[in-house]
Amino acid sequence: MSEFLSVALGFPTMLFSIGLAVVLFYWLMAIIGLVDFGEGAIDLDIGDAADGSELGLIASYVVAFGLSGVPFSIVVTLLVVVAWTLSTLAGIWLLSWLPGLPLQLLGGLVVLVLSMALSVIITARLVRPLRGMFATQYGQSSADLVGQSCRILTGEVNERLGRAEVAQRGASLNIRVWSPSPNPLCRGSLALIVEYDAAAHRYLVQPCDD
């Protein structure tokens, strides 16, 4: 037990242990009901993320590594749990045998990088069978939003970018929207959802009066 705690609280597993604590806290809040699990599928489009370089980079990695199509919370949880498990096992079976602090630090860096890389590969395989379940769930409800009103979340809405919030019972949905330019839509504006584009997974909206 002492060896396990030493590894879990030592380098590099300590970094993943912190992430694991954050993930456990999130799911505890979700069980209590303080966090909405809701509409959180990773379905990022590179063009849609063009409003920020960091978001565009995240979107490109998500698509490239095959982590799209499932809720973000599930992907992050799997990444952290897998990386923590790999790092812990490596710490017990490999790092403990390395003599001297310099070699242990060097070995820790190698384990850190390999654990992160392998966690992405393993998580991509784990989420693959889950995509169908979430695609069905979201596909059945997407068209139902047509005709409802939404509140714009982004600074502007055009042919390339736009996000809006749709009020639902007990939770709110964050959806992708677009509207022909020019238009008066901006953050806080009320808009009407008039059409759903199943191919692009986004909604056509138009301004409406409060």
Largest sheet: 5 strands, mixed, barrel
Radius of gyration: 21 Å
Low-pLDDT stretches: 38-57
Mean pLDDT value: 79
Strand order of the largest sheet: 1-2-3-5-4
**What order do the helices and strands follow?**
HHHHHHEEEEE
Count the beta strands. 5
Secondary-structure content class: alpha+beta
In which range does the helix fraction lie?
40-55%
Rough outline: elongated
Strand percent estimate:
15-25%
Give the number of helices: 6
Amino-to-carboxy terminus distance = 61 Å
The number of distinct structural domains comes to 2
Task: Give a quick set of tags describing it.
single chain, alpha+beta, OB fold (Dihydrolipoamide Acetyltransferase, E2P), 2 domains, 5-stranded mixed beta barrel, 6 helices, elongated
Explain what the structure shows.
The chain is of the alpha+beta class and 210 residues long. The chain folds into two domains: 132 residues, no CATH class; 62 residues, Beta Barrel (OB fold (Dihydrolipoamide Acetyltransferase, E2P)), CATH 2.40.50. It is 48% helix and 15% strand. The protein has a five-stranded mixed beta barrel with strand order 1-2-3-5-4. Strand 2 and strand 3 form a beta hairpin. Helix 1 packs across helix 4, helix 2 packs antiparallel against helix 4 and helix 4 packs antiparallel against helix 5. The chain is elongated and about 70 Å long.
